[in-house]
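Example for tutorial group B:
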């Protein structure tokens, strides 16, 4: 995320989302996608669930909108949201 290259920021977000998927699977949430797993989260089980959703939305824009222009500010914001989730579950 510290790179000056937008593609590096996008890659960081895609990789963070894969880590989020691992966490959700380990916690027992089932589904075909991160979005499906997040829909099954019980609010009391996951303090940073809204951060996970917001970060995942950015991931979806990267994955599904070919011309999506990711700003460095938005990339940092998404990575920091993933970081909150990872810290909550002692993943990092």
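The residue assignment follows.
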């Amino acid at each position: 995320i510290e790179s000056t290259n937008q593609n590096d920021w996008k890659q960081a977000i895609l990789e963070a989302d894969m880590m989020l998927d691992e966490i959700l699977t380990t916690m027992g949430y089932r589904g075909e996608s991160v979005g499906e797993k997040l829909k099954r989260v019980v609010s009391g089980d996951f303090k940073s669930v809204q951060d996970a959703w917001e970060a995942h939305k950015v991931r979806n824009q990267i994955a599904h909108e070919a011309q999506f222009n990711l700003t460095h500010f938005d990339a940092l914001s998404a990575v920091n949201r993933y970081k909150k989730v990872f810290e909550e579950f002692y993943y990092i």
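The chain is about 65% helix and 0% strand. Compare this with the pattern of hydrophobic and polar residues in the output above.
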